[in-house]
Specification:
Two copies of one chain form a homodimer. By secondary structure, chain A is of the alpha/beta class. Chain A contains nine helices and eight strands. In chain A, 40% of the residues lie in helices and 16% in strands. The first copy, chain A, is globular and about 45 Å long. The two termini of chain A are 32 Å apart.
Chain lengths: 200, 200
């Protein structure tokens, strides 16, 4: 709580995401939405889709705030249900399609794990322009090059997240330097990829 | 937080559920599990299955604590994805089956909404003995009779939850009496249903 207020005060232009993975019956989702978007100054929140439209919609009623819906996550367990397949459609594709009925790209983004870069082409067929939040670069083994190759749009369209490689960069007194270095590396790599695409 | 400590201190035999609907990558789920089961004295937590096994397993490593996995929820949005169907199997059935590989009925329960009583026969084919947490009686329109008819086992096997009919029983000064009355009614109805089944 202190951290997010501090960031927003010092760097109001930074887009702050609550990776809370909520999703509950309507009136509870409404309370969560108020907590993250009104009481706290988050710009976006990750939401799990399992409970469907009425569990997500309360988060979509705030101006300039975003829902980032879990579609295809970076963890191994993603294989258990997200690839469940009805006819020719995977569950994560159904989530991408169905949720288009709830809001457009001005309110909605999707989580697609960097470890699933091979699926980004299919994801982009359904959501060609939406921003994607891409976790799993770094500690989880996802490749930034692959992600950019298959997932980048003309406006970039990617929010790439590296957490553990940074926050666990070192357990010694040099943590601040090691973490900064790690963050800098990802940033630099992203900058080059954007230049190649002539976005900057 | 104060409430749950108060309940556990005054009535240690009461089974307290955190209806938190969590489910995150492994190390985050581990932190949530510690918060709810170690820092706080909850007996069980509801967990969303979308991210699969490694998002749920961290909650299953505590003695005498339960995961209550969302299978078929009581809200309208349940129709969006929970009935997604691969061959002859619905997603919620896949969740019930797949999760049997993670833990047995000594650690796992399932959420099945009272508004889905017609599906309880199918649910019981897959999990004949597991306890089910059944929300949606009362304000959401679920029938306790129907739930008992299709979902009750020889040991009862049901935790029936009525929230809004109780906490919103009255907005006047008589709230305490109205709420107590509402709770008493559900309890009495349940007692009769248990007697009919010769469980008490």
């Amino acid at each position: 709580e202190k951290t997010v207020f501090y960031i927003k005060e010092k760097y109001p232009e930074i887009f702050v995401i609550a990776d809370a993975k909520r999703g509950d019956i309507g009136n509870t989702s409404t309370q969560y939405a108020k907590a993250f978007f009104e009481t706290l100054p988050f710009d976006a929140i990750t939401v799990a889709p399992y409970m469907g439209s009425d569990s997500v919609r309360p988060f979509l009623t705030f101006d300039d705030k975003f829902v980032i819906l879990l579609a295809l996550t970076s963890n191994v367990g993603a294989n258990d249900f997200q690839y469940f397949k009805q006819n020719d459609e995977y569950l994560f594709e159904k989530v991408l399609k169905e949720s288009q009925n709830w809001a457009g790209k001005d309110k909605m983004m999707y989580v697609v794990g960097a470890t699933r870069a091979e699926m980004l082409t299919q994801v982009r067929k359904i959501v060609p322009e939406h921003f994607l939040l891409v976790p799993g670069v770094g500690a989880q083994g996802g490749s930034l090059q692959e992600v950019a190759k298959y997932g980048m749009t003309n406006d970039c369209g990617l929010i790439v997240n590296s957490s553990r490689a940074i926050i666990y960069a070192s357990s010694d007194a040099d943590f601040d330097k090691k973490a900064a270095l790690e963050a800098k590396q990802v940033q630099e790599e992203m900058r080059k990829l954007l230049q190649e695409k002539k976005i900057s």
